[in-house]
Design goal:
alpha/beta, TIM Barrel, 7-stranded parallel sheet
Length: 293
């Protein structure tokens, strides 16, 4: 199985009792698939994986897989500070029916390059042949993937993709050149997707795609067709969505936007706080400007 295109990072709708709101998550899955997304990614950063219990994480992924009904690939997030727990999470996601794994390293103490490489290699082995997407986000992570580690991991058979949210497009080009033919790159919300596509990226894997799926797909299709003039015309207004996403708390921003679009996904997990009226009004204005409200 190969991955390309638009893969929204899904929010995790959790009610005040701590239960996963299955109904609204199913509605969101149906909405995104109807809009034409190429895959779904629960438990990315927008999915608040760092704030969820193990049971909540499993319930979110189980619900997405159930709601999806095999229509598009589901790439489930796995994140931990320990290799053994990451392996156990991966085994659960694979058994639940995930088509791929988004692999994230959490860290309290710094981890050496050897430890980072061993962590992701263990996840890849536990994935039992399913594609693994490396996810590195230096602004939130204490231990990053260096270019030499990424190059070595690209030689692991099923580590086939990376989403690097470093904001450094030059680093993406370095990754593409060092891993050519072995690893593909997805744009993050920190990057201008059309530019990533121009240098060889295969799509966009990010939270904002939850709220602008059709617009994101139109951009991807224009870039894939090599219609760069049209792609840039589509990109310019969409970049405002990325800007608002960067301005406010990640999950709070996307959850507020989805609420405005009619999806009652609830508030971000404490100690995060919901956005106020001024922020919601600003988000609403951006959504109207890009035709998403």
């Amino acid at each position: 199985m190969s991955f390309s295109g638009v893969f929204p990072y899904l929010v995790s709708p959790i009610d005040q009792s701590g239960a996963v709101m299955e109904g609204v998550l199913k509605d969101l899955v149906d909405h995104l698939i109807d809009a034409g997304v190429h895959g779904l990614t629960p438990l990315g950063s927008t999915g608040e994986f760092a704030y969820l219990s193990q049971e909540q994480r499993r319930h979110v992924v189980d619900t997405v897989i159930w709601a999806n009904r095999g229509r598009v690939p589901v790439v489930a997030g796995v994140a931990s500070t320990s290799t053994s727990d990451a392996v156990a999470q991966t085994e659960y996601m694979v058994d639940a029916g995930a088509d791929g794994i988004l692999a994230i390293l959490e860290a309290y103490f710094p981890v050496s390059d050897e430890g980072v490489e061993a962590y992701f290699t263990a996840i890849a082995k536990a994935a039992r042949g399913r594609p693994v997407v490396l996810y590195t986000n230096p602004q939130f992570q204490r231990s990053d993937l260096s270019l030499p580690v990424i190059e070595r991991l690209s030689r692991v058979e099923n580590i086939r993709y990376i989403k690097d949210a470093s904001t450094n497009t030059g680093r993406l080009l370095s990754i593409i050149e060092r891993t050519r033919g072995r690893m593909e790159v997805f744009a993050a919300s920190a990057h201008i997707p059309v530019c990533v596509m121009m240098i060889g990226g295969v799509g966009w894997m990010a939270g904002p795609a939850c709220i602008v799926p059709r617009q994101s797909i139109a951009l991807y299709e224009a870039a894939k067709a090599g219609d760069w003039a049209n792609a840039m015309e589509l990109q310019r207004p969409l970049w405002r969505v990325n800007e608002i996403f960067a301005k406010y708390s990640i999950a709070a921003c996307i959850k507020a936007a989805l609420e405005l679009q009619g999806f009652p996904v609830g508030v971000p997990m404490a100690p995060q706080v919901a956005l106020g009226e001024a922020a919601r009004a600003e988000i609403g204005a951006v959504l109207r400007d890009v035709g998403a409200l």
